[in-house]
User: What shape does this take?
Amino acid sequence: MPVLLTTIDNLVFTIRSLKEQDNRIGFVPTMGALHQGHLSLIKQGLSACDVVVVSIFVNPLQFNNSSDFKSYPNTLDADLKLLGSFPNLYVFAPTFDELFHGQESDFKVEVGEVATLLEGAWRPGHFGGVIQVVNALFRLVEPDAAFFGEKDYQQLAIIKIMVRKLGLPIEIMACPTQRSPEGLAMSSRNMLLNTEEKHQALIIWETLNYIKNKQANYSPKQLQELGKIFFNSGHLRLEYLEIVCVDTLQPISDWETKSICCIAAYCGNTRLIDNLVLN
Ligand code: PAF
Assistant: This one.
């Protein structure tokens, strides 16, 4: 079993002694309900660092919808078991009060327009909450490197901006999305899908690949409209399908700009997101 830390005192004491022994510290922030995607972040962390701290904290500040927060899987015991075989691993699983001590507002950081696009437009306040928790955790863990999945592409972009803005000496490492053999992007939310929904959710991956493969034939705007047709079957409820610049996340008008297609859709009651770099 990994070392489980639940208080800031214990975390700070552990980090200090790891640093005194010159350990390079990797950090993988999570909201638990761990799956192969998280394990791949941890593996990348352990290959680049001496030790890895994994935080498990379902952050209420980043849910703009209270029923989404309530239904989010909470599986600490199973998570610890899953991490059992990893060496040099520390798990930090604080309560809300332990983490913030009523000071959550102190960790707000303004990152600009990028937080208002895509996910930001559909989940107002979401990135504000992500920033608060990641900033608070970065201050405590003081990692040399932190590992984030590319599935949450916009989150990754925003964390990079935050770190640059605050001048934090943390390397932000982007890790490829892990997928089921059929292409479903690994996500803690997949636990909420039944077998039929897991099958229906593959429409997202099919759409992303269709768009990637048809660039030579259509403009971004035309492909955006063609991609939306995949959702007409009614199995998934599309929130957005956008083809945007990989840096600014603003819609593109031609294929000169390096671009990414980002999709958010509901499968039953479960909201899924995915993306694919196009060129
Ligand atoms: O990607 C996630 O799981 C969360 O947004 C994060 C980074 C752990 C912050 O709560």
